[in-house]
Specification:
2 copies of one chain form a homodimer. By secondary structure, chain A is mainly β. Chain A folds into 3 domains: 16-142, Cupredoxins -  blue copper proteins (Immunoglobulin-like), CATH 2.60.40.420; 155-345, Sandwich (Immunoglobulin-like), CATH 2.60.40; 362-560, Cupredoxins -  blue copper proteins (Immunoglobulin-like, Sandwich), CATH 2.60.40.420. Chain A is 8% helix and 36% strand. The two termini of chain A are 25 Å apart. At the A-B interface, strand 1 and helix 2 of A face strand 1 and helix 2 of B.
Chain lengths: 567, 567
């Protein structure tokens, strides 16, 4: 007995050698509520009554425990911890169909994972299109005590940018699954930390739109003159690429997706769905007035969605005092050059470079296209449009369940030689499949995202791709068709930034490298909610044989119904 | 081996001794579609693209197999076979939370049950408020070959009456769960066999309302002059009590809830949600014109919902030719007397009387009231407002799962002496509970439904109560407070009709008797969708120890997660 106590003691010391890692416990209830984030009242999925949900605050090395109770009436739910690698806990990645069965109404599901790296992360629903219904929030992991960051600031604030629709996600999903496609169109508004403003005078009678609702008063960022603010700006738009700016103030980019950036100064931050940035802003302007914080749509010819507005409030001015100026206009929607340049400017901080392997073991090229399958509009990679299976891959593979998905490997590339990325494809047909990429464990994998023309002439969209369970090195961005001979020579192997989300720009390519060192099954997909829903994603498997015993809580659907697991 | 074959042969002969019972197999896909049943477009839950869903046609003794695939995106589903007793298959009653876990998106669930009695039955969703979203249809079981019915007719038609809302069921449910109550109000239209008509000129711009859509052309009942029609009229309204009539034609009531009725002639049929009737109508009027079929709201002071209209079309007049008359006006909404009289007039056909036991072993009185719990409006019986548990009772009881529900028995009655049913209660508080009534197996149980005033002065509603798994004898309807000494003497023990649904009229009482002879757990509840959602129901358990091994397909939720069962 005494020996056991001693052993336990020794064990806990070994497990938590440095400062005491803590447990951060949250109890969340997910349910519907009426909310008016842009003055227009609609049903929103909330966490403990909030959308955005509560911010998770933790320190590097802590364990986060979220006990999530699903209080929706007939709908299931699942939450993904965006940017957290889930090392050793691939079953808590929260990706319905990939790592878990959905959480039934009435059930309480406990997510438990370690936040092993400091930085700015997100969480959001990863089931159907529930993210768009308001189920999202911030995760802020500070550096371990005793460690420092390569920059300093006085205050720390989180701002999530989203776009917002008045239609329900059910209507949107049904429209996307219809033939002909019944697309919802551009969003009604842009929200800054859950607050936006729709012009209520456009609203016809039976709707509730209240321009004086405090729920849609602009978000206020109060600053003390002379102080420096770390703004953790992230995007969870369902569709839109955004530009974010603070009138009259420069921003210094210092972090991207949890990695320190070699600082550079910008006037506006281009940000794509799934990305997080920290920028430093000094309150160094005339303190007798307030300034506009604005966000506006880029990369789409969107004449519908007005810019999102917030107030950069110099204390002690009244927070509701509008700035005396007209809100500054954002960049030109179709000017790709500055966006490409900003993507290229993001490099690892010189003291925090993680050198990438100089060669890779496997290269996979993903041609991004819009397609038709039996008349239905879809998105695909390599003309393969992805469908989620009803038995999660992780369970199927770990428990040797056959027939859960198509075992044929999906294509490793496309017809590089003949495919014209600048025109609508001659044959826009695609096939749909739930097959996955099985990676050899502990190897180096290169991903080339290749953009192309959509089914509309002279149109190529921006797709932000998000990888679960990993950070990848961003080796390069290019224009036109990726050339496997000449382009890899130009890769940045010196100080590439590591990220979990990176855009592929219109008619361009993006080269990523990662190590398949995290046993599990991991989604990699366009973070535009409707694009993933319409097939723009893949799943990687690596070292699934090394995954520990699955918890029973993730079971219960498809062929994993009735399956046990560890308690 | 030979012996085994012989045994199997013998076995199947023993199982199906009379005319060959057949298997009626259906494959259904449940999904969302845009539909315009009353010209106004909204998302409807369909079966194989239809709402009402396909009619199940079977013969007494047949086995019905429905393979139901849930193609909703994030929502589960469950379907109840209303009026089918599920003898030996209590797990296929389709009542989420009582007899099964819900069916997950992507899953195919197979319902399999015997239709052991001829008659007119229904099916509908029994999960959340999905019934109101359009998930319902008819079951028509004909008498076994060789058997006859005590009436004759030339043609047989099914007509389901429903009321229809333009708000989604999510919005309705959220409103009902809000404090203050955000009630959706009276329905926008009444549908006759899935077709109604909303005045599109009332619709403001962003809605789609197309008055010329064929989906909302009136339902046409084409008749050949001189022929007799059996109309199987049933109601699945979410709220409304209805009157149904055919201009200029008498109707002879011959069946109620699958039981032959001593025929009687009416001008209008009062029908409550969950009831089914067969009426005979002879096409014996001037055949040179068409006639109106109308249905209108009674029992509520509803000035909003226009009557539902259909065409009684005398062949060969054009089916779309409007009758030359103004549609006849229905009965006065607040005249309870004719409704009470019609309820009392329904008696068993003299050749088909099933005599009730002359005494009962247990009497339970259910006081029907509207209440408040912590400020939230609820409905209750005996001031106990019912909540469904997340582990279905059948599974919890059969598998000895403890802690799935409150084991305290709910109250057997109310304070008969002091409670004033004619006024708003002094104390409208109630408690909520998921406790159930455990009945001794094979005993005779009397249920007295006692109506009372709601929380509004001078207001008492009609509640149609539906019992799963049984038919009950309707022993009597009365006015005022049930008197346990004087009223039972007046019970009809001679020729009471058996039914599965019976109304309790405003400020009145209804006395029912049934035998607890069907092992299982059975819901008994007000069939008004919102009233059950708000707590107006109970569950009976009887002989659960006699229930066979549960199928694994009903498992998977709450404490029944990970539980096995027979394949």
């Amino acid at each position: 007995m005494r020996f056991l106590v001693l052993f336990s003691l020794l064990f806990s010391v070994l497990m938590f050698p440095a400062a005491e890692a803590r447990i951060r416990r949250y109890r969340w209830e997910v349910k519907y509520e009426y909310k008016s984030p842009d003055c227009f009242q609609k049903m929103v999925i909330t966490i403990n009554g909030q959308s955005p949900g509560p911010t998770i605050l933790a320190e590097e090395g802590d364990t986060v425990i979220v006990e999530l109770t699903n209080s929706l009436l007939t709908e299931n739910v699942a939450i993904h911890w965006h940017g957290i690698r889930q090392i050793g806990t691939p079953w808590f990645d929260g990706t319905e169909g990939v790592t878990q069965c959905p959480i039934l109404p009435g059930d309480t599901f406990t997510y438990e994972y370690k936040v092993d790296r400091p930085g700015t992360y997100l969480y959001h629903a990863h089931y159907g299109m529930q993210r768009e219904a308001g189920l999202y929030g911030s995760i802020r992991v500070s550096v371990a005590r005793g460690k420092t960051e390569p920059f300093s600031y006085d205050h720390d604030r989180s701002i999530i940018l989203t776009d917002w629709y008045h239609n329900t996600t059910y209507e949107q999903a049904l429209g996307l699954s219809s033939n002909p496609l019944d697309w919802v169109g551009e969003p009604q508004s842009l929200l800054i930390q859950g607050k936006g403003r729709y012009n209520c005078s456009l609203v016809s009678s039976p709707y509730v739109c209240n321009a004086t609702s405090p729920q849609c008063s602009p978000y206020v960022l109060t600053v003390v003159p002379g102080k420096t603010y770390r703004l953790r700006v992230s995007s969870l738009t369902s569709l839109s690429a955004l530009s974010f700016q603070i009138e009259g103030h420069n921003m210094t980019v210092v972090e991207a997706d949890g990695h320190f950036v070699e600082p550079f100064v910008i006037k506006n931050l281009f940000i794509y769905s799934g990305e997080t940035y920290s920028v430093l802003v000094k309150a160094d302007q005339d303190p007798s007035r307030n300034y506009w914080v604005t966000t506006s749509v880029v990369s789409r010819n969107n004449t519908v969605t007005p810019p999102g507005l917030a107030i950069f409030n110099y204390y002690p001015n009244h927070p509701n005092k509008s700035p005396p100026t007209v809100p500054p206009v954002g960049p030109l929607w179709n000017d790709v050059e500055p966006r490409l340049n900003q993507s290229r400017a993001i490099k690892a901080h010189h003291d925090y470079i993680v050198p990438p392997p100089h060669t890779s073991d496997r290269v996979i090229v993903f041609l991004n296209t819009q397609n038709k399958i039996n008349g239905y509009v879809r998105w695909s990679v390599n003309n393969n449009s992805f469908n989620l299976p009803h038995t999660p891959y992780l369970i199927a593979l770990k428990e040797n369940i056959t027939g859960a998905f198509d075992p044929t490997p999906p294509p490793n590339g496309y017809d590089f030689v003949n495919y014209d990325i600048y025109n609508v494809a001659n044959n826009t047909n695609a096939t749909s499949s739930n097959s996955i990429y099985r990676l050899q464990f502990n190897t180096t994998v290169d991903i080339i995202l290749q953009n192309a023309n959509t089914m509309k002439k002279n149109d190529s969209e921006t797709h932000p791709w998000h990888l679960h369970g990993h950070n990848f090195w961003v080796l390069g961005y290019g224009k036109g068709k990726f050339d496997n001979f000449s382009d890899p020579i130009k890769y940045n192997l010196i100080d590439p930034i590591m990220k979990n989300t990176a855009p592929v720009h219109p008619y361009g390519w993006t080269a990523l490298r990662f190590r398949s060192d995290n046993p599990g099954t991991w989604a990699f997909h366009c973070h535009i909610e409707s694009h993933f829903y319409m097939g723009m994603g893949v799943v990687f498997e690596e070292g699934v044989e090394r995954v520990g015993k699955l918890p029973s809580s993730i079971m219960g659907c498809g062929k994993a119904k009735g399956l046990g697991g560890r308690p």
